[in-house]
Amino acid sequence: MSLCDVRNLSKAYPSFVLSNISFTLNAGEIVGFIGRNGAGKTTTIKSALGFVHPDCGEISYFGLPFLENEREIKQRIGFSTGAINYYPKRKIKNIVAVTKSFYQNWDETTYKKYLELFELDENKMPCELSEGMKVKFNLLLALSHKAEILILDEPTSGLDPFSRNEILELFIALKNKGVAILFSTHITSDIEKCADNIMYIRKGKLIANCSKDEFYRIYCQDGETLEETILRLEDKA
Hints:
By secondary structure, the protein is of the alpha/beta class. It contains nine helices and ten strands.
């Protein structure tokens, strides 16, 4: 079942143009979003979430037009953008107390579960956390209100291999519960491990948007890893 539909999303800046991006997020699927720095991943994500205003395009979630239903829709979406930079001198428990007041479906049991899983200390401040633990805290906030869609910009950035594997296993568990997940990354092994579909963007244009198996069949040469394929495609661009 489609939970998110984006059609012909475009955004022009003086030195960059995002051109006619279309994709769908389905319940119980993980989409890995890949492309080099400046290719348009973050612009796509921010436009789809209303953080920047696209020049054109249609965006809907749960069958509802985004612009007319933004407040309701964002109650059902979790967003994370890697490490956090806000309120560096406030204790985690105080930041959480403010954050949860915005969500009707905030679930304290779920929050406590991920707090323990991520081994976060509520009495610490973000400025006292490692980069990897900041990522985990941001994910904690995104996961604690029973989001049906997770849109994550570089969610495993700064994590050690063990923590990254833990997060990817969590993604798979959430997918099996029907959550739709879109995550951007530069770490191709993350996509190889858990993604069902791949979106590959280059210079503001979506080059590929298909299942992982189809991407391998169309773009990968014999014996190539996904990383080697992307590097070859970028070299030819």
